[in-house]
């Protein structure tokens, strides 16, 4: 009616203007809707969650402060080479297996959105990641509001809300948004700087020159011991007089710790020049105890904070450590000091009502969250991606794309059940397929492989153990809450399938190349050091108290039984004797049953001589089917001459050769 009045008053031009205003208002509403889900950040984790929300048909919006996705990678790493591998060839056609060795792709249904199509380099350029994330967002039509920086987040209590409150977000223009669930995927964006006397003379990794010519003939001190520090050193290694690297902790090599965030081989040239007596060197000291003094020539000298404080109190010249100790390691003057100390989470935009706080010690750079990735202070606030790494810091790959793409999916599945009553995805199988199901997953699953010790497959047995339900990649540390978080019931018992390294194998002080570092016989499987499958059996679901007070260094409470599949050099657990047979016997002992498959003749004999038949006979022979068949097996049987092809014979009689029922003949091998 309002539009008709406007048309009568303004005529045709007025009608067009009214239509334009209506369309403008419509698009404004479409671009700024109150959402059920708000995602902060259009980096890899934010886009990954947006993909799952969109596929589920949920109401969501992603807020991104920059003009495009992946803004972190537009600037970092400064020297542009990623340390995430882009392994394009594995010799395997299985897409799930290949994701084990693809550290850059996000999960989607589109095979063109694999990172291998964006770079051929084993260590890709960061610009390729930016291009990939742009295409991921555009091709999948994800709902992202660019140039929208969320400046403040607070709570609005409401008993009708999903979690008892709404999250109210305000952007840089004062526009407010309200959502029921807040998913924080902002990463670590605040540079970590140590404040000490003279820190104003220190250049930062974020702004220091990356042109090696600017460092020719200079003495350089680098503060830090991570990949950014070594990346910076690698860039100028050939043009400086020498490089000294100073940090509070010793160097941690990724091949020793099995943690991809520690020093990678691609950046460790300084270790060679240090150990091969070529002037460069590494030192350990607490940075907070140091001070830097600048002399009249502009050279920088390292001293100790207490010496500087004493000099100020006595109004005398600053005493340098070498004045008392002429063998002081840092007695040389430096031309430049560069800080490469990593990043911290940005807590500043969150109102205190959200109770989002940091952890302690080395975990203070991350927000404090539960093993379910939900904030410990506020229900409905989840942390995703790099910022969620406190759950598995230095334990697994949750701080990196090839790890958090799976933890993001786990969070989405938890949300689907909490708010939409959609149970955790599962598949159901007869118990005779239990061994095969486990073997398939440990040989293919990428989530288990990359998030070792964090995500695990859960196998739920039905009441009489004749069938099982298979749940993939559930967070191990919330196992006690499985029923309430997934909608699945534990009726008789359960198996937990995880991937683990040997407990005493990895560590910064370990020699992981020692003689006899691996075992090869199945009887020694429990001593396996390299990544290998471990299966836990519980007669009932562990309690939260049992999880909390589990033995030290155990991922789960002490199980009823445990089985290690012996490590394999090829990471292929398919050997009939070394891998499959011990697993099957372990499962049979737990279930007190026989999981072998039998021909109809053997089942007939068992029926005459035993009170309890093996499950394959119960589910096959007693149902007139012999071995349980599939169309693939039928075709294979026909092609190999083991079966007659009845599908080409019109309407065959109900009796096969020798008077056998035809259905029974069809499924016997």
Automatic annotation (TrEMBL):
<keyword id="KW-0285">Flavoprotein</keyword>
<comment type="function">
    <text>Probable flavoprotein which may function in endoplasmic reticulum associated degradation (ERAD). May bind non-native proteins in the endoplasmic reticulum and target them to the ubiquitination machinery for subsequent degradation.</text>
</comment>
<comment type="subunit">
    <text>Interacts with SEL1L. May interact with OS9 and DNAJC10. Interacts with TXNDC16.</text>
</comment>
<keyword id="KW-0274">FAD</keyword>
<dbReference type="InterPro" id="IPR036188">
    <property type="entry name" value="FAD/NAD-bd_sf"/>
</dbReference>
<feature type="signal peptide">
    <location>
        <begin position="1"/>
        <end position="30"/>
    </location>
</feature>
<protein>
    <recommendedName>
        <fullName>FAD-dependent oxidoreductase domain-containing protein 2</fullName>
    </recommendedName>
</protein>
<keyword id="KW-0732">Signal</keyword>
<dbReference type="GO" id="GO:0036503">
    <property type="term" value="P:ERAD pathway"/>
</dbReference>
<dbReference type="Pfam" id="PF13738">
    <property type="entry name" value="Pyr_redox_3"/>
</dbReference>
<keyword id="KW-0325">Glycoprotein</keyword>
<dbReference type="GO" id="GO:0004497">
    <property type="term" value="F:monooxygenase activity"/>
</dbReference>
<feature type="region of interest" description="Disordered">
    <location>
        <begin position="646"/>
        <end position="669"/>
    </location>
</feature>
<comment type="similarity">
    <text>Belongs to the FOXRED2 family.</text>
</comment>
<feature type="compositionally biased region" description="Low complexity">
    <location>
        <begin position="650"/>
        <end position="662"/>
    </location>
</feature>
<dbReference type="GO" id="GO:0005788">
    <property type="term" value="C:endoplasmic reticulum lumen"/>
</dbReference>
<keyword id="KW-0256">Endoplasmic reticulum</keyword>
<keyword id="KW-0560">Oxidoreductase</keyword>
<dbReference type="GO" id="GO:0050660">
    <property type="term" value="F:flavin adenine dinucleotide binding"/>
</dbReference>
<dbReference type="InterPro" id="IPR050982">
    <property type="entry name" value="Auxin_biosynth/cation_transpt"/>
</dbReference>
